Amino acid sequence: MSTPIIQTPIADRLSGQVALITGAAGNIGLATASRFLQEGAKVALVDISPAGLEQALSTLTKLDLPKDVTPESHILCIQADVTSADGVQKYVNETVKAWGRLDTAFLCAGFSYSSTSIFDTTEETWDKVMKINTRSAFLGIKYVATAMRELKTGGSIILASSIAGLRATPGLSAYSSAKYALRGLCQTTAAELGQYGIRVNTIHPCGVNTPMFQATWSPEKMADLLSRVPLGRWANVEDVAAVVAFLASKDACFLSGVALKIDGGAVTF
């Protein structure tokens, strides 16, 4: 089993950049916001939950940040419904109004459910999963790219998919379908938006050790799934945040349309 290492932010790599994160009150969104701030970016936190945003801000305020990065100057909280066009335009417009630019969007809002066979998956579950995971990404790309095109700065759009979007995942037909859809959305928009200097990529973590993931599977199934990860552990939120920060940076300036696995080798067999 591999031992998690400390993910070390690269000082000032994202200095001067503006990023927005949807689902920012969730574990992955919050860890990514922390990483972005530690690398010098200004960050707009977008979530539907006011209480979640308040807690996220409280957590980030306690970080040991670079001396020129303060919560007042580098953090903006935006309550918005990411599944509605009005909500998406709100978070894009407020971010640009506050800081005059938009360099990166990490579209991380998501929803899963306890493993359920196709026979027992309801239409309501299907619709909710598609709305939160896929519709929100479509709207996010549409309006983020519109702003980036108008600003003429290019940018990076990163979609939070999953290894469930790369291989069959029995028990998660709706979730897997939603995450597969993000690949098609990514590749098509990467081809469309490259002329504006806009890169679009997907990340595909294996199980990330969060409450949402733990609620999806039984303990027995969790043990079975872990046995198929060659590096012998689940991803942690810092693993994901480090990859997202890389994709946001100039180090990834020639990556677009890529499906980047963060899976400890799980999709090697």
Explain this structure to me?
The chain is an alpha/beta fold and 269 residues long. It has a single domain, classed as 3-Layer(aba) Sandwich (Rossmann fold). 43% of the residues lie in helices and 14% in strands. The protein has nine helices and seven strands; from the N terminus they run E-H-E-H-H-E-H-E-H-E-H-E-H-H-H-E. It has a seven-stranded parallel sheet with strand order 3-2-1-4-5-6-7, sandwiched between helices. Strand 5, helix 6 and strand 6 form a beta-alpha-beta unit. Helix 1 packs across helix 9, helix 4 runs parallel beside helix 5 and helix 5 packs parallel to helix 6. The chain is globular. The model has no long low-confidence stretch (mean pLDDT 93). It comes from Hyaloscypha bicolor E. Keywords: NADP, Oxidoreductase.
Ordered list of secondary-structure elements with their pairings:
Layout: E1 18-22, H1 27-38, E2 42-47, H2 50-61, H3 71-74, E3 75-79, H4 85-99, E4 104-107, H5 123-151, E5 155-160, H6 173-193, E6 198-205, H7 211-214, H8 219-226, H9 237-248, E7 259-262
Parallel strand pairs: 1-2, 1-4, 2-3, 4-5, 5-6, 6-7
Helix pairs in contact: 1-9, 4-5, 5-6
